[in-house]
Amino acid sequence: TDAGKSTAKWVLVTGGAGYIGSHAVAELIESGYRCVVVDNFCNSCYEPIARLQVLTNTKIPFFKVDLMDGPALEKVFQQYNIDSVIHFAGLKAVGESTKVPLTYYHNNITGTVVLLQTMKKYGTTKLVFSSSATVYGDATRFPNMIPIPENCPTGPTNPYGKTKLLIEEILEDLHTSEPEKWRFAVLRYFNPIGAHPSGLIGEDPLGIPNNLLPYMAQVAVKRRDKLFVFGNDYDSRDGTPIRDYIHVVDLAKGHIAALKYLNVADNESGLCRAWNLGSGTGSTVLEVYKAFCKASNIVLPYDIVGRRAGDVLNLTAKPDRATEELKWKTHFKVADACSDLWKWATGNPYGYQVLGVADAFFN
Ligand code: NAD
Ligand code: WQD
């Protein structure tokens, strides 16, 4: 089955049509990696892949595959010499996960287990995993642990966050079973925002956006009337919650740094280690609101409403481990991310929807 398989090394990007995955593919190709992408389009479409090919002037092999479909995934491993995997594919909406927990456990856990089984079968041992700051739960319960270091006790408070923690534990168990073999980099993202500075790729949520920046962008392009700020009675400088917002391009570059780390350790033993990817600086909702108003030159209407269930006061990263070990840090500020988001939103007010000619072929 491997006849004709080239010896060139490929990085398999799962969920590469999604928001963060598509930005990572751009950075990977820019850094000289060959990428093959799989995605089932449950929260995306082909258009970003088509645009990435234009942006990078590179042919990007793409397979519409659900990770839970082992035989379909195997075909990719048969065709390409997969040296490492960056695993973005998963469902990510906190609120939805409380409504349909089984869908989240099935998709995220089973998808990852099938991926790992396939890697094992084909001898691929390196994986970078998209985890989340949500594994820390309400870190404010440990006041001396803000900003949050990686050794802060975990305690996710919703099914989505629990799938992330459980996958981290699965990776640890697999590494423990064959410690010389497996190399796992667990990246705990804080709040990714912004878009590629080209304006060609960006975040395109289906339906009503759950997250602050995409919601503001839709208000700015008049797809929504006003922003609702979920509570101003928190114990912060202006009463709104604090998050560590990170430009998606900085985040994408963190994956290159992690891959390099896994590769440099090549002749030594395996590893399974977590790194926070954040800026180390917290911003309140109203600070981000002001930054986006400035970038777009629009005074967005907003109402203060009640707190959103499950929200916590402060999630700010202590990113020192990534700085020291991965030699990675953020370069962009919230203001840069707001400008890039505005470029994306003005060029693509309805996201990828207006084009999508290629989707007819894949769907
Ligand atoms: P996204 O929804 O834009 O991208 C995920 C992609 O995975 C989508 O294109 C989706 O179609 C695909 N996918 C989902 N299940 C799949 C399956 N079973 N088989 C194949 N493809 C599948 O989300 P994103 O914001 O790019 O997030 C990427 C990863 O990072 C996710 O694992 C998410 O949980 C994690 N993460 C995201 C954030 C955030 O705020 N965006 C923060 C922390 C962690
Ligand atoms: C940010 C702030 C809201 C929308 C989520 C996930 C987390 C991770 C990142 C995946 C909060 C406020 C928001 C709105 C608002 N994802 N807000 N009005 O909740 O910090 O993190 O995305 O792993 O797991 O929980 O991000 O963008 O939803 O909210 O006032 O319409 O903006 O209350 O303070 P969050 P967010």
From TrEMBL:
Pathway membership of this protein? Carbohydrate metabolism; galactose metabolism; Carbohydrate metabolism; hexose metabolism
Its required cofactor(s), as named, are: NAD(+)
Q: List, in alphabetical order, the GO biological process terms annotated in this UniProt record.
A: galactose catabolic process via UDP-galactose, Leloir pathway
- Give the range the annotation lists for the signal sequence: none
Gene Ontology molecular function, alphabetical: aldose 1-epimerase activity; carbohydrate binding; UDP-glucose 4-epimerase activity
Keyword terms of this UniProt record: Carbohydrate metabolism, Galactose metabolism, Isomerase, NAD
Catalyses which reaction(s): UDP-alpha-D-glucose = UDP-alpha-D-galactose
The yes or no answer to whether the keyword Acyltransferase is present is no
Q: Tell me the ranges covered by the NAD-dependent epimerase/dehydratase domain, including all copies.
A: 11-263
> Is Glycosyltransferase tagged as a keyword?
no
What does the entry list under GO cellular component? cytosol
Q: Which family does it belong to?
A: In the C-terminal section; belongs to the aldose epimerase family.
Q: Which function does this protein serve?
A: Mutarotase converts alpha-aldose to the beta-anomer. It is active on D-glucose, L-arabinose, D-xylose, D-galactose, maltose and lactose.
Q: What is this protein called?
A: LALA0S08e00232g1_1
Give the species.
Answer: Lachancea lanzarotensis
